Prior knowledge:
The protein has helices at 14-23, 35-40, 47-59, 64-71, 80-83, 91-102, 109-121, 125-138, 147-155, 187-191, 194-205, 221-225, 229-242, 255-262, 264-267, 274-282, 287-294, 315-318, 325-332, 355-358, 360-376, 387-399, 409-421, and strands at residues 169-170, 178-182, 208-211, 249-252, 284-286, 307-311, 337-341, 381-384, 405-408. By secondary structure, it is of the alpha/beta class. The strands form two sheets. A five-stranded mixed β-sheet has the order 1-3-2-4-5.
Amino acid sequence: MLHEIDPEQHGPLGPEMASAVSTCVHCGFCLAACPTYKVLGQEADSPRGRIVLMKEVLEGTLPLDSALPHLDPCLGCLACEPACPSGVSYRDLISPFRANAESQRTRTLGDRFKRLLTRMTLPYPGRFRMAARTGRFVKPLARWLPPTLRVMLGLLPDRLPARQTWDAVYPAVGTKRGRVALLTGCAQSVLEPDINTATIEVLTRNGVEVVVPQKQGCCGALSWHVGDLKRARGFAKNNLVAFPNDVDAIVTNAAGCGSGMHEYPQILRGTTEESAAKDFSGRVCDVSVYLAKLGDLEPIPDRGRPLRVAYHDACHLSNAQGVRAQPRSLLRSIPGVELCEIADAHLCCGSAGTYNIDQPEVADTLGREKTGNIVSTDADLVATGNIGCMTQLKTYLEQRKSAISVMHTMQVLRDAYCETDD
């Protein structure tokens, strides 16, 4: 029974976890939406099953170790939320539960090493670039390395793009229509820095001044989603100070980062920064949302070049932020573009932050299924709004020897504009 859960016993995140548990009526609508249930086929590996497990752990009737084998494989993709008729806020349960459970669980030496490696590299672009470059030389030895390292190396590109840096301010072109601050991201600024450059070019071309806070850091989403509350709070607090208040919006171009920054009030629940976090998160929006609200964008002349574009919904854009129509509208604004919908579009590609490192078997199945559906569209390229998805899709499309390229929505739009300048 719900009343057996004492919310205060589980810290400042306890009341939200209790509320999420109480809202679930166990109807089962979430099962068809859940990628891990589709792959693993067990009730305990569905959102409904996991809610029961978390409830029993919170009540003290089930040992944590009995629940973890089913809770760890959860992607946190939140596909269950739009499928739920009762409005269960699963995000208020899974990440806080992981944060509370982390200090109570025992991890193997391999797990601790893996988490240390990701924790000390991914959130820091300089370190990550150095680690990625080192990984290139180690790749030929991958077959003799532990499985965790093999998976990590397999996700690295054979060659990193040239390093890019960004000025503190980019003035609007023509009449100034707005002013935003841009999160440049961690892994993204190493693996695909051109996404930020394309975002700046599209925004400034449409009359938006872009500020790039020089003291910004990791958004904290990676730490938050794996239960590392202390580090997530540190990253969040840094960004509360680093980003200016005198902007129309804090713009993100990575779904996971945007979702994580929207969760700052939850991450900082019970701290002196909680109020500031609410104000901050209210100003965060994906770049496609900002452009859609701006409206009257600079038109792109018809160059007479047909292009079939498959759009992949990043989970933390479509499910966590409810952003589906805006990227599609931007892509359709490009003359000659035929937008292709992907079968089972609601299913995660298997990236989900560090998921393809933590749960490689499930991630592999989802990556293969997603790229199989993309290939079936016969598209020229697939566009999406998240660097993790891009890395996953590139990896599995290359395995299929597919010629379909992978681009960020802003890169597609920027390139369409650039064609008009030639």
